[in-house]
What we know:
The protein is of the alpha+beta class. It is built from 18 helices and 24 strands. It folds into three domains: 3-168, Aldehyde Oxidoreductase, domain 4 (2-Layer Sandwich); 177-253 and 299-376, 2-Layer Sandwich (Aldehyde Oxidoreductase, domain 4), CATH 3.30.365.10; 391-418 and 453-694, 2-Layer Sandwich (Aldehyde Oxidoreductase, domain 4), CATH 3.30.365.10. 28% of the residues lie in helices and 21% in strands. It has a seven-stranded mixed sheet with strand order 9-10-7-17-14-15-16, with helices on both faces. A five-stranded mixed sheet has the order 12-20-19-18-13, covered by helices on one side. The longest helix is centred in the N-terminal third of the chain and has 28 residues, at 81-108.
Amino acid sequence: MTGAALPKSLTDxxxxxxxxxxxxxxxxxxxxxxxxxxxGITTALAQIAADELGVRLNQVTLAEVxxxxxxxxxxxxxxxxxxxxxxxLRLAAAQARAALKAAAAQHLCADPARLTCHDGAVxxxxxxxxxxxxxxxxxxxxxxxxTGTSVTLAIAHRLVGQSVPRADLAQKRIxxxxxHDIELPGMAHVRVLRQPFRLARLERVDxxxxxxxxxxxxxxxxxxxxxxxxxxxxxxxxxxxxxDRFVRWHEVAGRWQPATSPAEMVVTSGADGPxxxxxxxxxxxxxxxxxAHASVGPSCALAQYEAGRLTVWTHSQGIFALRTxxxxxxxxxxxxxxxxxxxxxxxxxxxxxxxxxxxAAIVACEVPGRPVRVQWxxxxxMSRGPLGAAMSAEISAGVDAAGRVAAWQMRVTSAPHAQxxxxxGHANLSSAEALDGAHLPRAVxxxxxxxxxxxxxxxxxxxxxxxxxxxxxxxxxxxRTSSLRSLGAHLNVFAIESAMDELAALAGxxxxxxRLRHLTDPRCRRVLIEATEMADWDGGQAIGGxxxxxxxxxxxxxxxxxxxxxxxxxxxxxxxxSRLWLAVDAGLLINPEGARSxxxxxxxxxxxxxxxxxxxxxxxxxxxxxxxxxxxxxxSDVPEIETRFIEPPDAPPLGAGEAAQGPVAAAxxxxxxxxxxxxxxxxxxxxxxIMQALAGE
Length: 697
C-alpha cells in the first residue's frame, strides 16, 4: 500500500507510537479513535492487531478512547470502523512487528528472515531466542510514520475469522459497564428542564415554590438553560416531574429563522442518447416520517471542572468534534477540555449523548471541583434528542417493449441528516441554543456524496439503466434532525426496490428475473440469487390467506456490503413479519458472529421502522412522549431470521452495520403489496396506512 492510498486515519496521525504501545510489560496497548457502541468493534480491532503482531488475544488491550491520548478518527459512523480503523491498525501493527524483528536481528546478528514471533517472543530458527517485544521496545523509533509498506499477515489468520466472545460484554452481563454505572466521589445529580419547543424562552422559575416543595433541589438558570441539582438522584427526578408547577416558558414571535437551503444536488444524470420509448410508466411517491432513535437507555454524561480543566465522560460517537463544540460554547480553550468515551446503552447515530455531555459541562463549570452527573428522562430521550429525518422520494419510470427500464427519474426531498456537533461549523446541540440563540444553524448542508451522502445515500439505483436523481434538503422545519442509522438509505432503497417491483409487474416479469435482467454486478447478483434460493422464492406470487414474500437488494453506500433480503409477511389485523432470509457479502469477516449480530440487529430495527415507528409532529413541534406514545417492535414480533454470508476469496472487509436497513424495508413492502394486492407507499406500513391504500386514497 502506497502512502497516497493510506487510510485518512494514518495521514492525520502517522506516528507509529500513536497506534501501538509496549509500555506495559507483557501487554500490547492498541489505540483507536473508534468507540464501542455495542457493535463489538473493540473485539474485532483487537483480533486484527493480535493477528498482525503474532500475540494472543488476551495480551492485547484497547486503550480508553480519550481525547488526551487517542488518535482522532472522526466519528464512529457509516459502518467504517473495521474498514478504516481496522485497516489502519493492521498496517500499524505490521510495521511494529517488522521494526521489532529488525531490532531483534541486530541483537542476534541474524537475518530477519530467520526470525519468527510467537506470543510476543522472538524465535531464531524455530528456537526461542530469549528476546521478546518488550525487551526490544526501546530499540524501536515509535515516532516513525506508518508507511503502509510493511508486509501484513493477512493470509495467515489465526484470530481473524473466528467468533471470539466480545470483550465488552462480561461486565455488562452482571449489571455494569455503562456510563450510567459510573460513580465519582461527591457527585451531584442533575436533570435539565428542556425547552418544550425549539428556542422557547425561559420566562419564570418559581424558586420559592421549588424550595418549599423540594428543599434538597436547587435550580441553575443561564439564559434559557435550566438545570435542577441535588445530592440525591431521586430528588431531582421528583422535582423534574413537577416542572410545570414552577417553570413557565413562552414563545417570542419570529425568533425561529429557518436556515437557508442549499441548491438542489444532482446525484447522477441520464446516459447519452435518446431513451427507448416506454410502453408503460409509473409516477409514484414514497415517504417516511420522522423516526426516534429510541435507545434502550436514556442518555447520560458526567463532567468535572477542576483547576481550570474540564473533563467530560460521554457515550458520544465523536468525542473530538464534541470537545471542540463544548469549548466553543463555554468560552474555553480546546486544550482545556478533555472528553472520555464511556459505553452507552444503544446508539444508532446522533442521539442525545452529545446534548447530555454539554448539559453536564455547563453545570460542572458552575460548581467547580464537584463532579456532576446528568441523566436524561425517557421523555427527553424520545422527543428532545435529534430525530431521523422525514423524507419523500418521487419516482417516474417506465419500461419498453422488451421489458427493460427505459426511463428513470427520482426526486428526493428530505430534512437534513448530518447535523452532528461541528457540522457546518455549528454546535448543533440543544443546550448551546438555550445558552445563546446565535448557536442556531443558519446554513445547513447535508453530507456530500464523497462522504457517503445524507439524503442522497443510496439514491442511485444499483441497476444498469440510465437514471437521473436529484436531491433537495428542506431546512424550513424547526424539528431538529440528524444522523440515524443508514441516513437516507432506508427510504431511498425502499423507494427504488418498491418501484422495481412495480415496473416488474408492468413488464409481466418475476421480480427476481426483472432485477437480474438489469444487473451485471456479479457480487450483487450472487447475494440476490442466494437469498431467493434460501427462501424458496416463488416467483412473487402470493401464497394465499394474506401470506406473501417480497425481495430487495442493495449495496450500502454503493461501496459497502451487498445485502439481499426476502421477507415473508402475514396480513391479519396488523401486518406481521414472519420470516426473513438475508444473504450478505461483507468481504472478509473479522468476527462472524459479531457481523451476524450487526446484520440481524439492523434487520430487526429496519422492520420496526418500516412497520411501526413514527414521531408525531404538529406545527413543527413535538409533544413529550415515552414508550407508551411510540410504537416499536417487541420481542414477540421478532421474525425467524436466517442469515448467510458469502466471503469471496481475498476480499477486504466491508462496512456491514447499516446494510440491512433499506433492503429489509423494501422486501417487507413488496411482500405486503403481494399479500394485499395493493401498494402501500407511505411508512410505517400500519393498519391506518393499509386502510387508506385499500380505499384508494
